[in-house]
Design goal:
This protein has five helices and eight strands, in the order βαβααββββββαα. With about 190 residues, it is of the alpha+beta class. It has a single domain, classed as START domain (Alpha-D-Glucose-1,6-Bisphosphate, Chain A, domain 4, 2-Layer Sandwich), CATH 3.30.530. Strand 7 and strand 8 form a beta hairpin. The longest helix is centred in the last third of the chain and has 16 residues. It is globular, with a radius of gyration of 16 Å.
Amino acid sequence: MSPRARTLRPLDEPEAARLRAAELTYVADRLGTTLDGEEPPPGYQRLRAARVVGHGRDHFEAAVAALDDWQVQRRSGAAVRADGGSLTVGTVAVVRLALPVVGFVGVDAPVRIVDVADEDDRRGFAYGTLPGHPEEGEESFVLSIADDGVVRFTVDAFSRPASRLARLGGPLTSTAQAIMTRRYLAALETP
């Protein structure tokens, strides 16, 4: 069972404009690398995990609706402030992560959506990190439905520390990422 979903709040326009104008903090040969399961750029650590979260077209569509409403992040215990109502390339957000290994300390993680998958049997998005994010890299959240109706959720990321806190965290930072990935995967499971 996932933690109670937090409320989605809008970004105020000055902050949204600042984030839309900011440069991504990582370099990739092609944005959306994680969305396509490609290898990360050199020097980045990859974290990829997948889980079956349900069965059937109805569950797939319900999971897509939840994904499109930032429910993965919100059900995982993160607070989200985002611009606009739809997840399209260019949408910016600040995901406030409650670090699971250090109690109630929260970290703001600004991101921009860099690619979207919108196919009949595969939907999702990838976001890249912006200045102020403790890591630099990209993360994708993809739902797929197989011919037999199995609905699979995949989280794929590459990252490296960007902040002093993340660098000092060393193995704790990797542990926190792994915990959040498990929470993300559990967020769309069938109850």
